[in-house]
Every structure is written in structure tokens, then in C-alpha cells.
Amino acid sequence: MSYKLSFTLCLILLLTSCSSVEKYNQQISKLHSVEDIHEDIDKVYEQLQRNHPHLYQFSSKAVLDFKFDSLKKAIDKPMDSRTFYKQLSAVTKYVGQGHLSMSPPSQRFDRKARKALRGSKFDITNLDFEYLDNKLFVTNARGKDSVLINAEVLKVEDESPQDLIKKYKRLIASDGYNTTLHQRVVGTRFMSYYVNDKGRFDSISLTFRNSDSTFVKQYKRILKKNLAHLKQDSLAKDSVKLKDVKKIKLTKAERKAKKKERKAERKHNEKYGFIPDRNEYTRNLNFIGKDSAVALLKIRGFSRYDYEDFYDESFKLIDSLKAEALVIDLRNNFGGRLKEITYLYSYLTDENFRMINPSEVNTRFPLLKSLMANSSPTLVKAIAGIASPVLITIDLFKTKKEDNKLYYKFKSSKEQEPKPLNFKGKVYVLINGNSFSASSILSTQLQGSKRATFVGEETGGAYNGTVAGYYKMYEMPHTKVRARIGLAFIDAPYKVTPDGYGVKPDVELLPSYKDRLQSIDPELEWILEDLGQKN
Fold it and tell me: Are strands 453-456 and 426-431 parallel, antiparallel or unpaired?
């Protein structure tokens, strides 16, 4: 009886899941009525007004009211979710908060399709792009496509990248009035914008120009079962047959050594923030210049694995080698954890400090609200509901009302002490338009305290703060377009006027496509020349 009941329940769940997937896909692909779209516009604006603590910082209420009202008037015929997403993004960007973003709904798959897709291979993901001098080109390539590095993209299918980029820039939100983020991120995240624009695809053709040759390369998604066939074919062609290969049995000591080796490798990868699908590290320390007298700390982001060991060991090494100067490379660093930048800054100052101010919020329960968003998985909401007494206590303990405003205290707003091995030499920071969020907050702290010389271009993140911390992912009822709404205003103690711009470099240097072709880093070279350390 129990077996039959279990089987029946599983069958019901399976059929319900399949029905739910089919219903959802029909919902996002159909043309929505004008009334339904107008309701979604009203709903998302209401969510912004309720949750976003600095909604009118860069555009007044009158301006935003007009923008949202004009959007409703402009939409006078049915449209699908993806088209609506583009029109809505062109309006919400006027809020002037780079963490506020809209995303179109994605097609869902049943269990069988998900299994087939899991482990699939799509080599277009091996390419990284950059946009300089009105050219989109490959800046990095993994696997067999390494020959494409610096190759210019002339066509994406039948469209020019310049036309696509012009369209995507209209949808990109930035902090305040900043424009450097638009120019940088549109290249770095080109394929993400392309997917949001076109929807999911299983093949794509790119026309490249590499040196004097022009050619078309087709990329296709290969499913896991097809990958298995390819692997078998490859093995069949191998001159050494599998049956002739004897399995080598390891001794107990050898197995123990292998286990120790794997553990050491895992620990090393965690410390340096290894990214498996990119085969690169998040945190890197090198020594450059004459006699390796300059420490170069390149941080790709502040959000992978534990970081304490890396910074502790790095600054211990920098101290022991008596480095003349320290260069912190924050280019293309989109941010991450406040805790990590606070820890890093404690090695860059010899005074007590506060990394950020208490954060203005619109609710006493930002943590709980972020977990209980209507887009959160049912399991997450169930766990959050069970844990709500604890979460509510945490939120209430950290929230304080002052001057009729609510403030939330992150740990980084507490006074911190410098590390004993804090670096006392000269500090340079490399920045560009993709230096955003936490990397901009760190830059504000360093520039405000006059601790570093900045080289490059204005950061994409604002000097005077940004709305981030916790997020509410709100899914609109009809179109299923999602809004990512920041819930806390995060700002360093330092401020500049006018408001709405990023951290500006002391020395402005912009790289060119020619620099990339010649493997020249003009920003880093300027620093080495300034130090008299260029070889």
C-alpha cells in the first residue's frame, strides 16, 4: 500500500511539474494584454517606492512619475515579456542605481530536458570580450580558441556588434550620471546582454577578423549524450586500446599521499579563489619591476571563498620582501563582500577606521524581506519562515531609527583596527569603468583618506555610495519580468560634490585596441615609470 501511495505521489508531482513548466513557458512567450502590462508597471513602481531607500536621489519623484506614466501611455498594444523587459529597462535606468536591474524570464525545462542540458558544452562561453575604440574583440579565450585572442568581431549572426551595443547601452543602469560603466560593461558582458535580447539559443555564428584574414566560426551547444559519443569516438581512434591498459593499484602510502595532495590543492584553490569554468584565480599576488620591488595585487572580485589567509600571507610576504610600492588592480572588479574589502583595507592603513556608515533602509527587516521575495523558491521561503524568529531578531538588533530614518548596521560600519603588518609604502590603484560596487567603496575609502594614487578611468560605481547590501527579487505577476531591488544604501564616510559620479583617477589613462594587440598595459607602465621601476 505504501509503495503504491509513494508511486502515485511521485507521478502526481512529475505531472504537476511538467504541467507547471509548460504553463510557465506559454505565459512568458504569449502576447500580454495592455491591461496586464500596465498592472505590472504599476506593481514594480510600487515595489520600488516601498523598498528602495534612495529612489529619488538622481531623478526626482516628478520625473520618475512622468517616465513610468509615459511608458504606460506608449504601450497601447499587446507584447511579449522580452519586449516589455527592454522597454521597462529603458525607464528604470533613470533611477540611477547600477544595482537595480531588470531581467527577462527564461524558458524552463522539465526534468528530462534539464538532465540532458546538465553538463552540456557550448564553446561560445569560452570567449571573453572587450569593447575599445568602437571595436568588439576577444580579450581572452579558453580551450582551443586561444588563437582568437584580440580577433575583432565583425558580425554576430547578421548584425554588427556596434548596432547591438548601441541598443544595449540604452538599457544599462549606472550609478548616478556615470557613463564609463556603460562603455566597459557592454563589452565585458556582451553575451549576457545578447541572451537577454534574443532569448536562449543553441547555435550562433560570429564573423571574425584576425590580422588580415576574415572568417566565420559557428558555435553549437553539444548535449551531454553527444559529448559521450564524441569521447567514445576519440577513444576508439586511439592506438592504445583500453583493455590493454592495466589499472595501476596504489599502495596505502601512495593513496594517503594522493589524498594529502588533493587536500592541499583544494586549500590553495580556496585561498586564491579559483574559478573552475574559467581556469583562473580571483586573487593574485605578483612582484614586478626592477628586482621585483613592486607588489602587484590583482583582485578580480570580492566574492569567492574565504579570503583571510590570502591577505594575511600576502602582506606577510610583502613585508618580508620590503616591497617599495603596492599596486592594487581593481579593473573589471564588479565588487562583492563588504567584509572582504574591510579586511583588505585594514592592511592599507595605520589608523582606526570605519569602512562604511550605517546603511539607510526602508524596512526594519531587510534580511527577511530578501529571503521572502515572491521569486524565492518555495523551499527557501519555507526555511525562512521557520527561521523567521531568529531572522527578525537579527534584523531588529541591527536596525535603528534616527532623524525619522531607518538605519541598518553591517559589521563594516563598526570601528576597525589596522593590522599590525599594515603596508606603509606607496599605494597605487588601477581602476576603470568596470570597477563597481565594493571595489568603488574601497576606492572611495582609499582616495578619501589620501592613501593611494589612482590611475585609469572613472569607476563605474559612485563615490558617494550605492544601493545594494540585501536585494529583493520581485517577479511581476503577468510578464514574469524580474526586478532586482537593492534594500540598503551603502556609503563610505567620505563624500564629494557634485554627487552622482565615480572615483576619478589622479592620472587618466585609457587603453586602446592597439595596446591590446601589442600586449601593452599603459596604466601599469605609467606606474612603473613613475616609480622608476620600468625595466
Answer: parallel
For the chain, what is the radius of gyration of the CA atoms?
26
Phi, psi of 295 (to 5 degrees): -85, 130
DSSP assignments along 233-300, one per residue:
HHHHHSSS-GGGSPPPPPPHHHHHHHHHHHHHHHHHHHHHTEETTTTEESEEEEEESGGG-EEEEEES
Q: Which residue reads 505577476 in cell numbers? A: 477
3-state DSSP assignment of residue 239: coil
Cα(355)–Cα(337) distance, integer angstroms: 12
Question: Distance between CA atoms of 186 and 188, rounded to whole angstroms?
Answer: 6
- Take residue 319 and report the three cell numbers written for it: 613585508
CB 359 within 8 A of CB 487: no
3-state class (DSSP) for residue 171: coil
Residue 202 DSSP symbol: S
Rounded to whole angstroms, the Cα distance separating 484 from 476 reads 11
* Torsion angle in degrees (nearest 10) through CA of 107, 112, 113, 118: 110
CA pair distance 12, 289, nearest whole angstrom? 67
Please report where in the chains the cell 600571507 appears, as a residue.
Answer: 313
CA nearest 526: which of 439, 429, 419? 429
**Conformational region of residue 396, where left means phi above 0, alpha means psi within -120 to 50, and beta covers everything else:** alpha
Quick check: bond before 522 cis, omega within 30?
A: no
Q: Please, what are the averages of pLDDT over each run of 10 residues along the chain (535 residues)? A: 46 52 82 97 98 96 98 97 97 96 89 78 93 96 90 97 96 94 95 95 95 93 66 52 61 84 90 89 94 95 93 97 96 96 98 97 93 90 90 92 94 96 97 97 98 98 96 96 97 96 97 96 96 77
List of residues 6+ apart from 227 with CB closer than 8 A:
119, 120, 121
Distance of CA 16 to the CA centre of its chain: 34
Return the amino acid letter for 375.
S
CB-based contact 422:346 (threshold 8 Å): yes
CA-nearest of 432, 425, 426, 431 to 454 is 431
The DSSP secondary-structure symbol of 221 reads -
**What backbone phi and psi angles, to 5 degrees, belong to 298?**
-105, 120
Q: What's at 229, amino acid-wise?
A: H
Strands 274-275 and 280-281: antiparallel
In this structure, are strands 213-220 and 203-210 parallel, antiparallel, or unpaired? antiparallel
Give the cell for residue 272: 586564491
Please give the Cα distance from 360 to 380 (Å, whole number): 26
As a whole number of angstroms, the distance between CA 411 and CA 514 comes to: 44
On whether the CB atoms of residues 513 and 153 are closer than 8 A, the answer is no
Q: How far apart are CA 340 and CA 344, in angstroms?
A: 6
Angle at 56 between CA 54 and CA 57, to 5 degrees: 65
Q: Give ∠ CA 442-448-449 in degrees, rounded to 5.
A: 95
Cell reading at 148: 582568437
Considering only CA atoms, which of 77, 97, 253 is closest in space to residue 87? 77
Contacts 24+ apart (CB under 8 A), 139-146: 139/516, 142/278, 142/279
Helix axes 378-386, 388-398, angle to 10 degrees: 70
